[in-house]
Sequence to fold (375 residues):
Amino acid sequence: MKSAAVAVALFLWSPAAGASSLDAVEAKFFVIHEFKLESGVVLPEVTIAYETYGELQPDGANAALITHSFTSSQHAAGYYVEGAAPPGEKPGAAGWWDKVVGPGEAIDTDRLFVIASNALGSSYGSTSPASPDPKTGKPYGPDFPAITVADIVHAQKALVDSLGVKRLVVVAGPSYGGFEAFEWAILYPGFVDGVAPVVSGPKSFAPPGADQRLVAALAKDPNWNGGRYYDRGGVVETMTKLRAETLKAYGVDDLFKDRINNPALRAAAILNLAKTWAQTFDANSLVTLLRAHETFDARRDFPKIKAKVLYLLSRSDKLFPPSIAPAIMASLKQAGVDARYFEIDSDIGHLAFGYQTEKWSPALKSFVAELMQGR
Fold:
């Protein structure tokens, strides 16, 4: 535990408090006081935004944790209660893993109490560079302290503990969330039964200097002001351009080809998708989360893992290509880890984790069922 004191969870934007239906999801917030980062810096107060689905058993041992991708949110499943969507989320929009998390799905909310946590440093309600700095009352901006993937996981552990969870059946997440899944298995080996990193890896995909190149690109925006753009209208135009480039690298063009034949119309649709994201995601959060995983490398700590591992990659992913799997699987097995690999037969690259869940969720369902045998 990285905190000296933990406050009770706060339920905001929750007109139907206590509802557990996936048709009545609530935005929830948990506060940690005096949260100590790996760097030694202490944040006076940290808020972690989250959602829950299903019911926790009295023994606290039927829980699962969902960790989101790099720029996603805690809205993994279901629909918000009317008027209950938090800032940055569209009312009526289904969760990004709605076909993976739910009644009878791979992460079965009829059997599991599921927690979906927004990462520390992210843009959907958790403490981040856009949050007020207690010293100034203004957004932290570029003064937000450096965090690590371990810091994100320690904050999640405080949240999980506060909810009465005694054990996690599985930690599952795509991309950046897969980093966190590996880190959970390493930091809390006796607490997690299984982890399922999807289109991810145990090591950062960022090339050296990626954060500097990102900041340099953002600095071209006239509103950047050294990262202090909050009273200047933001840097939406630059963020839109960066997002469009990222989506193309992820495989969005291949995803849209069947739906939009005209290349110009397809490019316009991608740009619109990018702009929608850029209007809600904070540029300083993008920098913070990129820096958090730049030095991430869990491979040396594989011997600490006691959880079973289901590792899933997409055949056409350029970010985490299947070619990395043999070495990773060999290292896991050499470390004595019970690990298995599943390759997703997809033509849409990295985006297979959200748009083609039917191609890989049965493997996750079998894995979770195995973890729950005898319960």
